[in-house]
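Before a colleague's protein record goes any further, I have to sign it off. What it holds is a sequence and that sequence's fold in token form. Would you go through it and say whether the fold makes sense for this chain? The record follows directly below this note.
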Amino acid sequence: MRRTFPGGTLMLIANHINLMWRNPLIGQPEPGEQRFPIMHEPYDAELRTLARGVARDMGIRLEEGVYVGLLGPSYETPAEVRMLERLGADAVGMSTVPEVLVARSRGIRCLGFSIITNPGAGITGEALSHEDVLAVSERVARRLSVVLKGVLQRLNLA
């Protein structure tokens, strides 16, 4: 939704907004799970710094922003895009948020990325295509892979 992020932008997730209207932590806690995880920094600052450094060193453009998670499986309407922009979201998707909630409940550090595949509905006036979304994702996946491998190498995990 951020109008300065064209399709093909790789975005480092700095924070998220959960609009999925569900939380995977509802119910009995699993062994080792913290029921009320602290979410002041869901995406680890040190890991984000590493990712920015790898991207810079590799000459990969890496933006940073706020991701909003929606339930899906439909794309957003133009009215929903306008609302999400006003809420402070830079990108929208149908994943990531529940996984981060569970990981944080277990004390796991998180690093998140979003591939910006297209402008939000209504921004350009053009109809969206699921095939285009898949094609852009495929094209950007290589850059994401380079950044992830670089982060793992700097953490001595690769």
